[in-house]
Write a structure and sequence with these properties.
The structure holds 2 protein chains of 2 kinds. Chain A is α/β, with parallel strands linked by helices. Chain A contains 15 helices and 9 strands. In chain A, strands 7-6-5-4-3-2-1-8-9 form a 9-stranded mixed β-sheet, covered by helices on one side. In chain A, helix 6 links the parallel strand 5 (155-161) and strand 6 (183-188). In chain A, helix 1 runs parallel beside helix 2 and helix 2 (78-88) packs parallel to helix 3 (103-112). The relative contact order of chain A is 0.15. Mean pLDDT of chain A is 91; it is low at 1-6. By secondary structure, chain B is an alpha+beta fold. Chain B has 3 helices and 3 strands; from the N terminus they run E-E-E-H-H-H. The longest helix of chain B is centred in the C-terminal third of the chain and has 13 residues, at 57-69. The chains are: A alpha/beta, B alpha+beta.
Chain lengths: 387, 77
């Protein structure tokens, strides 16, 4: 590990730690952000490795812990990891499809000190939920929702929105209310991983998005602060980019199942970024000294129009992965920004989506479901999506 | 919602599903005294004694109102 180390004091601790414990998942969601080549990544870390990582991260100041995947419940040591994280003082979020969350396991997880469970639904209807995930899981998820509430957890639902389900937002919110949800995340698909591959089918039209926002707004007005609803607009409909990860290497540290350390969920795709592994390096060294984590800190890497932009301290040039996927260069401004010379790549994608939504039969490429066998030949990067 | 002292941030933080609020010194001093038993008046008295100050009631009430609105606190009656 070489390259410019972070200036001491200038870089804060990795407050948010995300452990993607496994890429194994019983679901096959078409919008999954996991890398399309996940089947070709290395073996999962062993229990002892994860425990070492938890201790090192906590010592650095990490406090919010996300346990995700894939489906984290396929790890049989989940309870053991939760118990260790709890003893260390983490606030522990389990991000799950619900598959595998039995009465026995939720009891054990609660006892181990799990703080919060975020349950994903694909839709308010069995038909669409099961189609999008290529499973029969709708009723199971309803049972799991009851289990979560029954064990005194705040009910947090996450529904990923896209063209195929966004018109059901009213029904989705009604379902959430029926289940006693306190938090609902209506997270529009962002286009990475499998979602990038399926962008032509998933990107909604502007009219769909506006309707969904209006429905959400009137629902909010009715339920008040009984239910907190977060509506995440897809980047492609914005004219300024998100402050991705509050800047790479600023507060967020993710670990892939094989121990690869990443400054964001999708950073694996960025060419030339030699991501360090916790198998060979300590977390302190990775966070403060590795070339990969210092690569996009500060503003030195920026190109125009970001370099001289008065808003560069607010959005940090947006998302590096989106810049790479759309323009082929991770140092470019996120093309979501209408100051980017590549902004038309985004508006053209939206225009194509409008046309496709108007004439669905003309879509040539079928939806690609997230699947181990499908994953093997897929390569990451900007070559993937066909029109 | 959980309140804890974080040495790495030199602050009290509030932890909740997928979020965190770093509290400033005054907010931390108030929140860490909200134990489900003490009243606002008890807390004001404790703070005034601890920090050798007077006239904190209005500031504490304003913060408690904000915290209730943000659902950092709940009122036990």
């Amino acid at each position: 590990m070489s390259a410019a180390a972070a200036v001491p004091g200038a870089v804060g601790p990795p407050l948010w730690l995300l452990l993607e414990l496994t890429y194994r998942c019983p679901l096959h969601c078409v919008f999954c952000y996991n890398p399309t080549e996940f089947a070709r990544t290395g073996a999962e870390l062993a229990t002892a490795d994860w425990i070492r990582v938890l201790r090192e991260a906590r010592a650095l100041g990490a406090v919010q812990l996300g346990l995700s995947g894939g489906e984290p419940l396929v790890r049989e040591d989940l309870e053991e990891l939760v118990a260790e994280a709890h003893a260390l003082g983490f606030y522990i979020n389990l991000i799950t499809s619900g598959v595998g969350l039995t009465e026995a396991r939720i009891k054990a997880l609660k006892l181990a000190g799990l703080d919060h469970i975020q349950l994903s639904f694909q839709d308010s209807t069995r038909q669409m939920n099961d189609f999008l995930s290529s499973t029969r899981t709708f009723e199971l998820k309803e049972r799991v929702a009851a289990l979560i509430r029954g064990h005194g957890y705040p009910m947090v639902l996450n529904v990923v929105l896209h063209r195929l389900n966004i018109d059901h937002v009213g029904e989705i919110l009604a379902m959430a209310e029926r289940m006693g949800a306190q938090y609902v995340e209506l997270a529009n698909t962002q286009y990475y991983g499998w979602a990038w591959l399926n962008r032509a089918q998933l990107l909604p039209s502007r009219a769909q998005l506006e309707r969904a926002e209006a429905v959400t707004q009137s629902f909010r007005a009715r339920v008040g602060n009984r239910m907190q609803i977060y509506f995440v607009v897809p980047d492609y409909f914005e004219t300024r980019p998100k402050a991705c990860m509050s800047g790479l290497g600023s507060v967020f540290l993710a670990l892939a199942p094989d121990g690869t350390a990443m400054p964001c969920h999708a950073a694996r795709m960025l060419p030339g970024l030699e991501l360090p592994s916790v198998r060979t390096h300590g977390l302190r060294e990775i966070w403060y000294e590795s070339a990969a984590f210092n690569r996009f800190r500060g503003e030195g890497w920026m190109k125009e129009p970001c370099r001289s932009c008065p808003e560069r301290g607010k959005d940090f040039g947006g998302c590096r992965c989106q810049a790479y996927l759309l323009t082929g260069d991770a140092e470019n401004a996120d093309p979501v920004c209408d100051l980017s010379p590549h902004h038309q790549l985004v508006t053209e994608a939206v225009a194509r989506a409008e046309r496709a939504a108007a004439a669905p039969a003309r879509i040539e490429q079928p939806l690609v479901f997230r699947d181990h066998r499908t994953s093997i030949p897929l390569v990451p990067g900007p070559l993937a999506p066909r029109r | 919602m959980r309140l804890q002292w974080e040495p790495a941030q030199d602050a009290h933080v509030l932890l909740y599903p997928e979020g965190m609020v770093k509290l400033n010194g005054s907010a931390g001093a108030i929140m860490s005294r909200c134990d489900g038993v003490r009243t606002v008046a008890d807390i004001v008295a404790d703070l005034e004694r601890t920090y050798d100050l007077t006239g904190l009631a209005a500031d504490v009430s304003a913060f408690v109102e904000l915290a209730l609105e943000k659902r950092w606190l709940e009122l036990r009656t």
